[in-house]
Amino acid sequence: MIDAEVVSLSRMQFALTALYHFLFVPLTLGLVWMLAIMESVYVMSGREVWKRMTQFWGVLFGINFAMGVATGVTMEFQFGMNWAYYAHYVGDVFGTPLAIEGLMAFFLEGTLVGLFFMGWNRVSRVVHLLVTWFLALATSLSALWILVANGWMQNPVGSAFNAETMRMEVTSFAEVFFNPVAQAKFVHTVSAGYVLGSMFVLSISAWYLLQGRNVDFAKRSMTVAASFGLAAALSVVVLGDESGYAVSENQKMKMAAIEAMWETEPAPASFTLFGIPDVEKHTTHYALRIPWVMGLIGTRSIDKPIPGIANLVEEAKGKIDNGILAYDAMLMLRDDRSNAQARAILAQHDKDLGYALLLKHFVDDPRKATPEDIQKAANSTIPNVPVLFWAFRLMVACGFYFIALFAFSFWKASKRQLDKHRWYLRLALCSLPLPWIAAELGWIVAEYGRQPWAIEGVLPTALGVSSVTSAQVWTSLGGFVLFYSALAIIDAVLMVKFARKGPDGLGLWPPAKPAPAATVIPAQA
Q1: pLDDT tens digits for range 320-335
Q2: In terms of Cα–Cα distance, which of 57, 28, 54, 55 is closest to 41?
Q3: Residue-wise pLDDT tens digits, 38-51
């Protein structure tokens, strides 16, 4: 039987390290494009102020980039430490984009970061600008390969189970790369990073204006952040719709859980703006619904229903029955590879093999499962509905708030009135943590909503763990928490230190000139 404690601890460890790592990734994605925009203005105008702006924000980018690399390396080690069977079973598919991302992050990005910092006085303006733009592209490409790997976990296309090797293998790398879930996640994630980078610049610049420091620098920075942030915030909402459609097409249970849709509604389904999901009674109390909205988002039609949780559980029971046939055929092929009948049965039902593996959590041999075991396995396909319901709504609320804040900032920037309202500057400063919160909520919706699957419909999370003891996982979990917490504290201290110094403290901006001394006119004798 599966050791539930080892599974829970392994999941907790990966979740914590991923949440820590994702503190740095979106800021890197967004801030580097701010550098590219500012340096482009410098090269086109020749005004030294824009160079100094690029250099100052580049210092903060460099600190964050280093921390992102440090936290990302150890995440990849966990696939061998805590998820060895996962790596064995799907490594042929999952490992390829992961390896490409590693090459891009450590070689391409690392080289370009070095050129960015060391090349200011060694190459021409145009060459350095090209380096900055290539760095911006490289960070996005690095994120692309990670999200291709993650998108395959959500929608495992371009692959098939090989009865000879007893592993998943690639059948079409083009399908893996152009996976609609992966592409939707990529554009949505990088847009969220652009929002975070814009908010970072906006908030710190607002602090300078509140302090009366580096006023011209802060106003220029806020103008760039307001313009880029507004475009990015609008993109997040639009591209989030595309991501939602991809979920509705390929992860129906996740969509039903996000909406707390217990039963299938007549098309087009309504959107629950507010409610309190009740898992035991399978209902949502005090539901405030907006007609048609979820149907339009999820199906882009007015006549296609979105299946409810109860209907999807019944579908899962049928897939488990088919999966048991595939599991039995797989074992027969393992003993006799020439068994043509078993090969035909496996080929017919191999898409549902993963559903039979869900039974491993309740019985050693899925072929001996009782109807009660099958019902338990089908019920286990329901993720945590209240968590997904509220995480999604809080994330969406943050998204619309960002649009409003950046739109107001853009309006004030166009009127050259960014420093006229101290309440607005305080609001911009206090909004700094919100993009991180929204990004982490999005990660929770995407990854927690996939449970109980490590690979949707293919490999249950509980079967992916390594053969380790709970004591060993506790030890590594404690080590990771200490290590990542130390890095987070170091990053926060360095960021605050250099932000407080400001461009004037780093010698990148002329300090404020002291007021001239009063002229003393000598009294006449």
Answers
A1: 999 999 999 999 998 8
A2: 54
A3: 999 999 999 999 99
